[in-house]
Queue: 4 jobs
Job 1
Amino acid sequence: MASQRIGELDFSEPYGIHHRINNPSSSLINDQGSGFDFGELEEAIGLQGVKIRNDETKASFFTGKPAATLEMFPSWPMRFHQSSIGGTNNKSGGESSDSALSSKNENPFEPESPLSKKASSFCSSDQLQHLQLQQDMTNNNDVIKTASSPKSAHEKLQRKGGGSTSDNKPLDAKTLRRLAQNREAARKSRLRKKAYVQQLESSRLKLTQLEQDLQRARSQGMFMDWSGGVGSNISSGAMFDMEYARWLEEDNRLLTELRNGLEAALSDNEMRVMVEGYLCHYDEVFRVKGVTAKADVFHVINGGWTSQAERCFLWIGGFRPSEIIMMLIQQLEAVAEQQIMGMYGLRHSSQQAEEALSQGLDQLQQSVVDTIAGAPLVDGVQQMVVAVGKLANLEGFLRQADNLRQQTLHQLCRLLTVRQAARSFLVIGEYYARLRALSSLWASRSRDQTIITSDENSCQTTTDMQMLQPSHNHFSSF
Amino acid sequence: MNQESVMHYQVDPWNYYMMRVRRRRMEEEDEMERVMRIVSESAVVIFSSSSCCMCHAMKSLFCGMGVNTMVHELDQDSKGKQMEKTLMRLLATNSTTLPVVFIGGKLVGSMDTLLAFHVNGSLVPLLKQAGALWL
């Protein structure tokens, strides 16, 4: 309802800020501490509008005044200019403004209507009543009713309204004073708005600069660590933890999208796009792991970035593909016979690959241990160098393991339909979410336990005896 | 031979250079031929190094599948270095990439390509085709 009345206000460019600030506007009005108050500005403008309309209705007296007031708002639309320039145009201007107001439709001036709509959202109840009075004024020049408001502009309006209704020819001095006060208020509002806009612009610039710095530091941080950590305080391990945290957030977002897509029963093509996107998401994490492994292979392979439960089941720095396939075979419904056979085959091949890589890793471990153990007590530097060289192979194993995981996921998507693939991703995501929840539950449980066990120290010996009993039974069979 | 090359150098540097290039190319061709000869001898040939663990992983993969492979330990071969270089050229890579596997006389590649083929499901047909796997 307010928008129709405001349609008459004809805001234009100087209030372009309205276009940008939408939602926070209402908070701006309430928050006097922000240093800018649209309210007073609105009132000042409204007063001007009222003033000019008054001028139109009392054409003879106000021919000079509108020119003076319009100087303050040079970018008012032409309508007002026309209405002010010639007394002959006053009536037409008045009629057009009336029609615009009474039409209760979109403002004929296109660039103003979005602004007017936004302006409507800015107005507090004070302004609503204030604007209402304009309509009343144009329609029947009645007594203005305003809510009790401490704002001086309202008092001015009351005074003015009272003046105009009671007196058809207000005194020059009075109107001059009111005009001057209006001018002052409008000028102050404009200055405040200017200052606020400048503040916003500077903080925006600062924000973009900060973002750029962050990006640069992040990329430089990783790069520097490769070259020996020159000038970088962030270790590559910590960097990877941050990257992984971001990847997890992205993962959650993509999984929610997949879930919504499945529930909304989107078309196959759209689902395929999402599934491909999710595969790329996984490719991304494998890529980052590879990059980090060049700098800090132990962090990645030991799973310092995982939760405790995940770390327990870790295989060469990540999940074991055959386990995931097995879980999917058990959890997925509505899978055709052929697909199940395919998945069993995939599981079999990945098991063989895992076995091979594990054996290779065992041999590496054995070789390193032999090298270090066989080093002479004095000056075993040579062996240490050899051992370090052998450890470099760890990165290769991690890369092969990640490659295996990546290939398994891609092959899975080839075996299944798009919807089944989406569901399997959801199952995997849910599984890992539960693992992480398990970790945190366990952490809180162990915290409680330490409080309890300290009270039970006296019973410790009896429990030990009970534990020994079963082991006796084991050996008795021999 | 040395005197020949010295004379050439004294007389014509460009020819000397071209002669060296030609000789290197012949050697490379020899090497390539040698490699091709080796890989055609057996259904599955792995070029590996006895101390390399990834090679051990590849050998265990084939063992686990029941495939008999011929393993060429390049660190125990007199011309091992040159063979390694030839293999690197074949794979179009600059880093040492042992192990390298050939199936049925054709280049398959390094460990990651092999794993990709295996997960794809295309390794077993390839082995059957080469006669390395029955069943």
Note: Chain B touches chain A through 20 residues (CB under 8 Å).
Job 2
Amino acid sequence: MYARRAAQLLQELSSCEEGQLPPYNGDKFDQVIRECEEHSRQFQSLIRDKDIETKNEDHYGSFIHHLSIIRNKRCLMAYMYKRAEVIQSYRWNVGRVLPREIQDKLNFSEQEYFKDYCGVIDSYMKDLDLDLTVDMVPPKDPYIRVRVLSEIGEVSLGDHAVSLTKDSFHFLRRTDAEPFISQVLLHSIILMLNFECVIIF
Amino acid sequence: MPGYYDISDILMEDEAVSVAFHVGANGVGLLDPGTETNSVEKGAKIDLPFWLAHELCRRRAVSITIPSCFGQKMKKDVQADAACVDLGTRYPYFYEFGCKLFPLVGDKSIGLFLRHTFANRYKEMLSKSHTASLNAIPKFVLRLSKEEYQLFEAARSSMVEFKKWRVRDLGLMKTTIVGHKRKTDLH
């Protein structure tokens, strides 16, 4: 009672690392809502047939119940809000499809929220005709050296076709290579730049 | 100013303060573990969470006693050595709590005390944050309050960025042409 459980819920959330979520604690959430109902019942019983202006013991008691409800509401809202923020960040950091272990931590309405958010972003990007999720870190170089991890075959990129056979190296424009890199079909080896020159050439 | 959804503000307001009731209150017996009836007597001394005490104090229903974290013992500890005082485990929301408590209690010395504590701890914290490595968590970090910890992290990450910048790639021209060296045909 008196918002202690709600505070525990928030403790759980804040003890997680930045950008991570604990599993959705539906039980505690429901318990807090039941506590609010209890407070509301007590409040009703204290103000029944009483003159609101007189500041007697019932008045202060009902006031305390009222404050508890408001406090519980604030805790629950903050809980949902923080989780929604993290879910939004998943679209930008992880991608359109969430891995199993993240999906298990969300409840049903949060999964729906994620789908709707992806839909909104996609329709916005379609209107702009621009993919906003590539190049989240500004690139130093328009070109990137890549190594093919699994057989892709002939791919036409812009004006020329490139044959992406397994374990072959290519030097591609970054925007062309990004979709393949995000699907883990190409491996960016930009960090091994100096090494590369020695091995290949 | 912290917002409605700010989780650390919400958790800070959960700190317990000891209050003395000026009025009785019915139907809230759970607040006072010692009471037999379902109500709080006038004059009772109870520990309430700060969010509740704050609102009741504004309506003059209770008066808040200064908690131990701003009491004489704490002041003596800070006088002796501010940097060794363990705020991280005992009072993680020391500064924010003090700032919110200060207008309610009417003790003008709390504000000066907060500033004095912070100023003395800051010097040591600054030097340690610049020299601390990224992986190891120095023991003294556990003694920092939440606000100090945020400053510490900010200083540490800016130091890391600075070191990265210092050893960055300097002026290597990356070739844009890949492939075998072209032999120019002179004939």
Note: The first helix of chain B runs from residue 7 to 12.
Job 3
Amino acid sequence: MQNMLTIISNALCRITGRNVGAQTVSELLIDLSEYVSLTSPAAPVLAQTERQPPKPPPVSTRAPAAELVSSQTDQLDRPGSRVVVSRSFADFTPQATFDIKKCDVHRLEEGPPVKATLTRDQGLQYYRIMQTVRRMELKADQLYKQKIIRGFCHLYDGQEACAAGIEAAINPSDHLITAYRAHGYTYTRGVAIKEILAELTGRKGGVAKGKGGSMHMYAPHFYGGNGIVGAQVPLGAGIALACQYQGNNQVCVTLYGDGAANQGQLFEAFNMAALWKLPCIFICENNKYGMGTSVERASASTDYYKRGDFIPGLRVDGMDVLCVREATQFAADHCRSGKGPIVMELQTYRYHGHSMSDPGVSYRTREEIQEVRSKSDPISLLKDRMLSNNMAAVEEFKEIDIAIRKEVEEAAQYATSDPEPPLEELCNHIFKNDPPLEVRGTHPWATLKSVS
Amino acid sequence: MYCSSWQFWSSLHKGSSGRCPWLLFPFFTLWLFAPPPSQLSRCDWLCVMTRSDRVVNCSCDWLKSLDLSRVTAFSPAEDRFNMAASLRCFLRTGKNAVSALQRREFHRSLPAAVQVTVRDALNQAMDEELERDERVFLLGEEVAQYDGAYKVSRGLWKKYGDKRIIDTPITEMGFTGIAVGAAMAGLRPICEFMTFNFSMQAIDQVINSAAKTYYMSAGLQSVPIVFRGPNGASAGVAAQHSQCFAAWYGHCPGLKVVSPWNAEDAKGLLKSAIRDDNPVVFLENELMYGVPFEMSEESQSKDFTIPIGKAKVERQGTHVTMVTHSRYVSHCLDAAAVLAKEGIECEVINLRTIRPLDVDCIETSVMKTNHLVTVEGGWPQFGVGAEICARVMEGPAFNYLDAPATRVTGVDIPMPYAKILEDNSLPQIKDIIFSVKKTLNV
């Protein structure tokens, strides 16, 4: 019942939302099908249905590149591989090895491994992370159309495998900086969903107390969230310099998009990073479009992994969380061993437009979006893999989905009901560790106070 | 015989050849015949000895000789300048020395003060802070092996090595971003721009990445960084290398903007800037680098800091308030000395900090003197002087003004190259004197 209401309200939002002219019935159905497929067990888009006794798995039609190799019972002596599930599904495969797509390399003898091992726990964790990011972004979309979120809102759905895969390969003590499509990374770096949504709605419970907005969210070892295209790349190289200076064996992951890849300051950062052998992983999230301009129309060379020239590079399938994880692991090892920076290109796709004010269909076709959704959706890819290797049950995924949707709903509730920051906060946090100072208001008689 | 004592001493000077002989000549041979030199003011002496009508002020003990081997000259012009500076120091208290000699008081207890150039003061400040906190490091073009484009970081690379003193390629946007990123990750960089003209290439990183971040993150992410380098006009470097950025950076909240004048300012303010947890833009002046100033004993201590945000009254006065910063403090002090002969006592305020502006100091002074003249090297439109005038209008001091405030600024043109044009593009002492008299309606 509750789900039906959600579906209807979502449909109504879309009907009354800003982009009513641009959306067709098919798009509406696509979004509705999202909800439907997640709750009903008999949806045609899923490859697997019920838990079955172990038998040779069929080749999945949804993941042509990843041939399923084996689903053997636990042979390794890794502790904790056998998971005790609350229900009596004790005969799940605890671990499986998958073939992943080989990465193209530039100035490297060899790339990351072509096989990735996934345990049941890891699989469920990645699924949870990606699904949370997906739901959070869709919720942000909904809130934006209700005009509860305003200004900029750049959504990350479709690219979840990048955030999940990178986070799986680095430590919490490593550093990460990205551009404005940052909600996914804000979550993977440890910020609660409700704080992210409250920041989007501009409330005092937000990460930056409502003062930053969509593009300026920060966390320990996460440096945002940067609004100026490309500016985050020299910043990331500087963070890597600090890691090298302090000798703490940490790396900095610096993300940018295909649009930013042509910025001059990137090449300045590449030069200095290579010169000083900074432990920096430069990652280009190539989602094929820089705002409304396709990569062919913007770049003389679309081999973004080669653009580092003297810096080694990898081209990675960004829709496969395991591929991203293995590549990032490889890159982190490369940096930590003192070999200097490395460039990674993640080939990925965003379902939404550049931002909420871009319908996303004037420069690409709906068929293209639909094709990626059906063939290469990162969440579905992972889910199919796990189901076909009997690593989890459909009900489990359903349970996780329901729990996540509840969590996101509660967070949205918090984000809409939390009060806005008080006006006394207007001038605070201009300087750090400074005595209180007076700030000029809009007219000479308005003297406002600023506290550090 | 002579129409004025000035002409006597001037003719004496013109007749001499070497340096040392005529230094001593007037004091020890023509006492009985010469008109008393005490009738001459400091400025007259300066004009005599340096054969120029431009005067630069300095305060030092003439009995301590300047160690000229420590001063690196770049051009004959600067060499003459430094020589003239040393003579000025000698002559500044020449009046006192002469009268002392006349009274035959050779035993004077000397203050434990030392003469230090602005360059050396900056060098000392950085050296002490690098030693004090190992998170502090310096990066910029030519700061390490070249000893600094203007030799400000001389000796630091030899002492601290590649890790703490980093030479960068000529990529301002890149290395400024790197410096800001390093500050975000816990270090305390000093980012040097060869001149602030080049900071325009990196201004996005200074404003959007450094200045605004603490506010945007509501206090989660601080950026403890210092951007320093020479600002404003130099000598003959023409339009693209002569812009003053005090107004540009002073416009932005989240930044502190500091503009020192003398050696004590330079050292104390740079130490404060490095210890500050916020982004600080430190505007030096190339023409002041080689000028020596007396530094008190207190200012030689390793913990000597000057608070950011407080102006200093360099000269007390009663008739007009002159508000200025950086190199033009010297100009104002010299103008004040000339005006004092005519009975106009000027109060000269050295701003020291552009942002946050010490409005209280200015207002207190204006309420005492009832007249305001601001002096700066930058362009007039939307400049430092414009802001001071607006603030004074909005505050209690407006009611104490007996005349509209006057701004003395650089001419509103890109800086030309030819010397005569360049000299007339910047405020001269005669311009300041003229403006004061107009403001006072005398």
Note: Chain A is about 40% helix and 10% strand.
Job 4
Amino acid sequence: MADEALFLLLHNEMVSGVYKSAEQGEVENGRCITKLENMGFRVGQGLIERFTKDTARFKDELDIMKFICKDFWTTVFKKQIDNLRTNHQGIYVLQDNKFRLLTQMSAGKQYLEHASKYLAFTCGLIRGGLSNLGIKSIVTAEVSSMPAYPDTGLHPKTPRSQPELKPRVRCSTNCATQVLR
Amino acid sequence: MGTMLRLRHNKDLFVLTYGALVAQLCKDYEKDEDVNKYLDKMGYGIGTRLVEDFLARSCVRRCHSYSEITDIIAQVAFKMYLGITPSVTCNNSSRTEFSLILDKNPLVEFVEELPAGRSSLCYCNLLCGIIRGALEMVHLAADVTFLQDRLKGDRVTEIGITFLRKLDEKKYRRKK
């Protein structure tokens, strides 16, 4: 979809812009990540507000997390979360096997260290969305790379597939109580 | 209903993200001109890449005049990415200066008014940079600025495109 392209490009420019205009020490002390996360937070709040105007009340925290994984993720990233795990004590791990904001990047190992810059906004997005639904949370993300697909041998000239980036968004909620009235 | 809702919300994502960006820039830069410049530069970066996406999605044929190009920007590109079709006017007899009049502007959907003390802020300056960057990738140099801005109290929002001397005259001969 056309507007997805626009958002992807804007997001990329925002990330590089924040780092380019970073002042002394801001990269090291995490100020850049914080800026991106805060912007995502604002957007997440706004999105959830628009989104849930017409939806039914959520039953419980898990219901909310499922909403994030399905409807919310589909709206923002055109696909659902591939895997949701929880310990039923406030920790949720959302796994996206083809995270849209990273698919454009080369998947070489040297880029993994930069992947966190491209995850900050999304972490904020989730945290902001949850916040407006009454859930206080800490959202972190990590990326692990998958081994390359094995060479089938049928087309020896075909280059090996790039390793996949599998960002895992770990979402730990520390206030499961007062949320749902 | 599900798809329509999602389409609308996806545009919201861009609009809200843009709003968060402008808000952050207002925190980082005291002077309006600095925010405007930053937005223009950012837009330029986006435009140079967006044009590839645009050419891949649309079937525009080679243009032979600046007015054709401006029409395509208004009727195809704006429609494709922002869902609006600004009207086009030509402002000079040599047909190098044009205006895009935006009656509706989705970028400002959630903006009631400019923040206090920010009267010179060109909230949508990203658009100027995008147009400028995109044109440059197809070998056209242009000045793109806001001539009128509803957020500043004008009746309409008007983007002015002034095509400058281009490098390769032969390919893009103007229609008289």
Note: Chain A is about 45% helix and 15% strand.
